[in-house]
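Deliverable D5.2: sample structural annotation.
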Amino acid sequence: MTDLANIVADLRDEGDKLYQFLLTLNEADWSRTTAFKSWTVNDVVAHLYFSDYLGVTSYKDAQAFECFMSEVESSGLTLAAFTRQWLDNLCGTQMLERWRALFIEMCDLFANSDPKLRLTWVGPDMGLPMFVTARLMETWAHSWAIYDLLGAQNVQTDRIKHIATIGIRTYQWTFSNRGLPQPGPAPHICLQAPSGELWKWNAEQFENKISGDAVEFCQVVTQVRNISDTQLEVVGEPAKQWMSIAQCFAGPAEEPPTKGLRGPLKGV
């Protein structure tokens, strides 16, 4: 199996897991407000559909992608508001099945594609393997808002290594995206995978390192958790500065959630 096929398989598994979980929701759950930008559960799933739609559209017709993005940007609406309007307020199980059908189509398209293919995107073009990894990252990251809201267990697997790798590769970009100087070399990273395996990146540096649980590291770089709400060991100024603003996803600089904001909802 090629590297691209492996990533697509992991993306498919992550989407399948989320879909099976969403099938357990009742009708009222879809309108509940999560701790992510006060989006509802429905907003979160609609956003996943929106992003997958962009990927499929870019794959099929780069010009159609650019036209659609122009429509989004000229609407004057927030992304959530545009998506609601664009989908005519589709909600609940209908929204779920709409997302599911497109997600399967996207995975099937990508699994049978040339790994050298590049997709037109917001900003620079993206190679297909990186784009698929980004879809895995976003599907995983956004699902936490729903799991946390409902107090549900979110069992993890070693497929999050793709997300950890994106996080580590965006160390320099996190600072340049904010117009900040890089504070020093990338820290040594040592993380324990869900399987118990140890994952390591970058040269060993006792004075500049991050160690701990791989899930928590992925939560920080995707801004699902504030670093203060994890048990990660962060040593040295470069590592500390990075973890305070880490952002592995594209787009303008975003602020991590405030301490205590994101996490399982108390009392559920």
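Annotation notes: The chain has a mean pLDDT of 96. Residues 128-150 form the longest helix (23 residues).
The annotation will be released with the project's public dataset once the embargo ends.
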